[in-house]
Specification:
This protein has 323 residues and is α/β, with parallel strands linked by helices. It is built from ten helices and 16 strands.
Length: 323
Amino acid sequence: MPSHLNGSITQGKTTVKVATIAGYDAPITITERDLPELKNDCVLVKVHAASLNPIDNILRSGVFHDAMPLSFPFVMGFDVSGEIVEIGKDVRCFKLGDAVFARLKQEDAGALAQYARVGESELALKPTNLSHAKAATVPLAGLTAWQALVTKGLLQKGEKVLIHAGSGGVGTLAIQIAKHLGAHVATTVSEGNMDLVKSLGADQVINYKNQSFEDEVSDLDLVLDMLGGDTLNRSFPTLKKGGRIISIKGEDTDGLAQKHGVHFEMLWMKPDGAMLAKLAKLIEQGIIRPVIDSTYAMHDTAAAYGHLADGHAVGKIVVCPID
């Protein structure tokens, strides 16, 4: 155990509480494991909050067993906000006591724990105007939105974008980023979330329960798809020639991009501390604000994931505090 962690931080313990699964589709349980082993290019973070993402349940199901296999017992969670308590010898840009947030890379997964190991390249300083609970909602969703709209989608001022599932974790941030970039933003939500997305900057709000979005929008430059399936397929005709669809959920199995003369790409979000630092600046400037659906205590992590699986969360689900 790192020597400076003795005493008040861990009360002399060499193990920490974690939320784990013992196998695919296994229940989530709160157990104990050894403190994560520090690596030279990593820091050890005392976790104050973690947030949940749909990918957590997808990985847990085993759907991506071949592409992203899990080693069991597997500690859940990728989004973390907390305080640096140990630093690897090759870390240069952070110091003990820094309040940080990050999207952990696959091999360091384990945000739902008292302590998490985080690579320096994934880290950013926490926005000064956010609590740890709010900061923990940002990394995966914010990086996904930025990489979809900017890195892959090449969204420009004056362009028209449709953001599906605008009230979700990615959607709420994507709306704000797109508005910041000067785009005209349309989004699909249920009636109960229309006021929320308008407050985030949406110019056109489509109630997907009683409106067909393809009847409401046309000549789009970009579509950000979070749903896949039929929603993705119906999105192709809404684009102008040369338009773009970026999806985090589905694939163009029917060759619709070629048929409609548009570009399609499926996004696999990459952890990126420098990009996360840019988002932190936008948050500190009041341009972006995270949306929290609900907060759970660590012992209720299983219930939190059950709520996530229902698919009706508005914004992000947080586990906090972790102690």
